[in-house]
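User: For a benchmark we're assembling, each entry needs the component sequences followed by a predicted structure for the full assembly. Here are entry 17's components. Please fill in the structure.
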Amino acid sequence: MKCQQCDKQAVFHITELETGAVRELHLCEDHARVYLNQADGGAASAEAGEAADPGEAGGQLGVGQTADELAALDQRACDMCGITFFEFRNQGRLGCPHDYVQFAKELDPLIANIHGATEHAGRRPVRTGPLAEAAATAGTAELTGVIGLRREMKEAIGLEDYEKAKENRDAIRTIEDRWIPPARQPAEQSAQEEGPPPART
Amino acid sequence: MKLDTLTQSIGEWLRGTGPESDIVMSSRVRLARNLAHYPFVSRATEQDRADIERFLRERIAAVPVGRGLESIDVGGLEEIDRQFLVERQLISREHADAQGARSVAIDPLEQVSLMINEEDHLRIQCIHSGLDLRGVWEQIRVVDEQIERVVPYAFHPRFGYLTACPTNVGTGIRVSVMLHLPALVITRQIDKVFRSLHKISLAVRGLYGEGSQAMGDFYQISNQTTLGKSEEELVEQVGDVVPVLIDYERRAREFLVRETEQNVHDQVSRAYGILRTAQTISAEETMQLLSRVRMGVLLGLIGDVKIADINSLLIRTQPAHLQKIRGVELDTKDRNIERARYLRQHFEAGDHNVN
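Assistant: Structure for entry 17:
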């Protein structure tokens, strides 16, 4: 993709969320720097007291707050995998399934922007038994807990806190035993599914 | 599976049969799935990746659709063998180049391939020759449902199936068709077509997916969004546009024959001539020329060459395939010489003639 300002390759893809509207910018490094500096510079001059209008100053404060909020948000980390929102923004890849819960509010506008929707309308888990849909949801919630427990266990081992590590290991086993289905389905069920592989068409 | 045995066949996507196979090379659907109890691949430790790989491989092997599959340890392969699987579209470039434990399970017909530890823990892919999106969807749905009974997929009541990248979340589905559109390229209508596809949220990619160049006038059309619509709707979204594109391409081919027959005949004959006589030739040029010859055969301008032959050459002249067929590793320069020799031998043996 080309930069919107010149012929160079666009390497910055900026999504501006304004009230009621989403604006996408695709810029090369140079133009992205200019664009981002403009935004910063505006706030700086207002802070220097050049803008006497209280309304405008208030507006600029609002911008400052948003920047602070953004910085705070960037520092937020997933309880389970530990990824920060900043890392996600940089890599474009999430750390674990729990991020969709932890960062739900922040991901919502992003997902709406990508897909034009925020609700899944496709097929849902068809499993019978312990992982039917409601259970699949609950199962995901509990199983993602294992990611955090495993991380803690590793830390505990590093600190030679073997008692804590053992507690974590037991907790992981309990959750996994409860939510991971058996590796094999009962014989009669798989017998029904057995058949010739789908024919070549 | 001995990869060498695969060199004897050409793989599903180039089989050259199925509905509309003069223009539609293949129909493909892939589903992205993740385990609930592990971090996504990019954040998983080496140990996690090894555990995920084993967990999925063993469980998939135990379900009915998994029993006929052959598992290949991609991490343990030589680079040339990984490249070979990429050329056959059985794994992605990203999967080939990744680090750590990863594998792919393939059925003998090369229709189903299950990549473990690609960007997501599991990428299920199903591919059929020609235009058959319905058939592909029906097949992949069964595979997915059987695996889901023994594997705890990460699922969210509102966001659906959870994926490492939010661009795949929801259904996790990518529906794509690979089209051969040489006449639209020659008549310079292709950009216009692509612009209109973008407007209806469809993506256009080259032969080997994301970021790859369009080589030899082959293009993949696929859905861009995965959330908010059902799988069937997304299959239809791509399926609906294919007959329109087929129609455009056919009309462009007719136009070329009607208005510029001598010119087109000259172009395809020259392409054929170079393929038969070149002493050194790159993979890219080969692909481009084979594309023209393929069109020439379909327009009846070149006799005696079968489409299946062209398809076979499309895959066998690619770098890893060529080296495996010849049984030696070659650098680019030697590959180009060997490729030209392979093409000459192939055409001499066939004794094909230009009309």
